[in-house]
Amino acid sequence: MTLRLGYEPSLSKHNAASIARISSTLLRYVVAVLSIGAAVLAAKASVSFLNTEPFVSLFLCSILFSAWFGGLGPGLLAIALAGLAFDYYLLPPIGSFVMGSKDAVRLIVFFVPALFVVGLTAAQRNVAITLQRSRRQLTVALEEQRKTEARLARSEMSLAEAQRLSQTGSFGWKVATGELIWSAETFRIFGYSPSVTPTLDLVVDRVHPADRALVQQNIERASSEQRDFDYEFRLLMPDRTEKRVRALAHAAKDAQGEFEFIGAVMDITAAKQTELELRQSEQRFRDFAETASDWFWETDRDHRLIRVSRESRIVREGIGVAPWEFAADREEEPEKWRDHFADLAARKPFREFRFRSVRDGGPTVHLSVSGKPVFDSTGEFLGYRGVASDITARMRGEQAEAALRSAQTDLAHAARVIALGELTTSIAHEVNQPLAAILSNAEACLRWLDRGPDHVGSARRSIEWIVKDVNRAAEVIGRVRSLARKTDTERKVFDINEVIKEVSLLLRRELAENRILFGLQLSPEQLTVRADRVQLQQVIMNLLMNGIEAMQSVSDRPREMEIRSQRNEAGDILVVVEDRGIGFSNENSERIFNAFFTTKPRGLGLGLSICRSILESHGGHLSAFRRSGPGSAFQFTLPLHQAE
Ligand code: ADP
Description:
With 644 residues, the protein is of the alpha+beta class. It folds into 4 domains: 19-131, no CATH class; 167-274, Beta-Lactamase, CATH 3.30.450; 292-390, PAS domain (Beta-Lactamase), CATH 3.30.450; 489-644, Histidine kinase-like ATPase, C-terminal domain (Heat Shock Protein 90, 2-Layer Sandwich), CATH 3.30.565. The chain has helices spanning 2-50, 56-70, 72-90, 101-166, 184-190, 200-206, 209-225, 269-291, 313-316, 334-345, 392-450, 456-484, 496-506, 508-513, 533-551, 607-617; strands at 168-174, 179-182, 229-236, 242-253, 259-267, 294-299, 305-308, 350-357, 365-375, 381-390, 491-495, 517-521, 528-532, 560-567, 573-579, 621-626, 632-638. Strand 16 and strand 17 form a beta hairpin. Helix 3 (72-90) packs antiparallel against helix 4 (101-166). The longest helix is centred in the first third of the chain and has 66 residues, at 101-166. The chain is elongated, with a radius of gyration of 62 Å. Mean pLDDT is 87; it is low at 1-8. The structure holds adenosine-5'-diphosphate.
């Protein structure tokens, strides 16, 4: 079926062509027959109606027409038919092919010029047909040539465009004659106008002086050896810019058997620049990697170390093994490692994974490692890449810092206990007062009870006072205990005004005994902090105690002290403690914050330095000022706690 379908169109085409040819031939012969028929009719008409001799010229015309229209075959047919028709219809005896000798001679005389005319006309017709065919062929050939030229122009255009885009020009060089042929892009690369005739001298002129000798040598070698070449050199353009070019050519023989080079010249300035920048950037990163205190590392898909950026004993010996094989804490911290393995299995990145390693009895090294998985373009896992740092020194520092912190806490505690020791008398007094009140109220109560059941109400009131005084004493003891307790720092949210009030209460007696006029100006709004309450108590107590001590020797003016709390312009909490004591000298204004700096015979010189470190650890700051009048002012700031 398919085959039939395949052949049918070509068959029918072939058939149609032969049918057309047959019909055209048939038509030419039919026209010959018809034209002779027409001549017979005309001749008969002239004989019948005009009573003339039949016109032989009529038959000659028909023969001429048949030969002109149909060629030699129809022309000959027309001669034969004209002879027969003439004899049959027009020569006596009419209606018969019999003729006399005279008529036979006439007929022969008629045939000879007719044959001559037919031959001539047919030849002329053939020439006309051949000419027509040639013209048709010429038109087709011209059309074909036009198309080829258009295609050529298009391909030349795209070639020129491609050369411009790739900055690659082409050239031909006939060694024997020195003739050079350049493409437009080659002219552009060398910076010459396309109107000049390119020569080797022009090329050499353009070459950078530093490369000129080498290029000349290469040209000479190429022309003598006639072998393919590929060189790079620099050009120095008229505007003093430099270009880097690469010239490469293939040695071939032209149609005359002469040697010639067919080649290309590429402007590789941009590519070279990019390559240079890439190399510089690579070098830069290599320098970073080599001078960094961290290592850059890479593992394969089985997590074995395959590359490290720096020579180090720890990692050098680890090449080819997985990092956990030299970890010393896998048994101590199995959970940490389990999580890490889970991350690796899930191809997750990890940050600052810390572990301890020991190599061949060497010292313990603490490492902190971060890494990210690497995948190829198809998404297949290739391994991990990342950074590792030796944090041994940092770990030791952290341990030392923790020890220092604990020593500081101990010291602060000791300072508090000492301060409390100094307050013993006033605290004893403070507790004594409620105790004395309790005693007198208890005695009064007993007396009311003795007086009988009617006085139970009064006895009850006495007991209520006892309860109040017990609470007062308990509060004092509670405050002392909280200060004396050695607690771990614990930050809570509270109003700093409460702490100021608490400490002021604790020092009430001390202030009174030293005849100090004490003013408390607390902000009406709450000043909430997130802090360690005991530590802030210690700060406020220290500042107040220092103020009291600074006024102990003052007798010529009123002893006044004030503590104020408010919010400053920055929105932070500001607490100021001001006294009218002896003050401090200008030169001591910073030294007073140094540990162990004291001007007091029994002083430790620790109070202010502890206060400053407590406040700084809370994000605050402590400073001291000399007042314009006598005395000094100490103030500290703390960030206000914003409720979330
Ligand atoms: P100490 O009270 O044991 O000397 P501090 O660190 O509390 O330790 O104080 C250090 C020094 O700062 C004091 O010896 C004193 O000279 C000075 N100083 C502290 N507070 C005041 C103050 N209110 N007025 C004057 N000088 C002060």
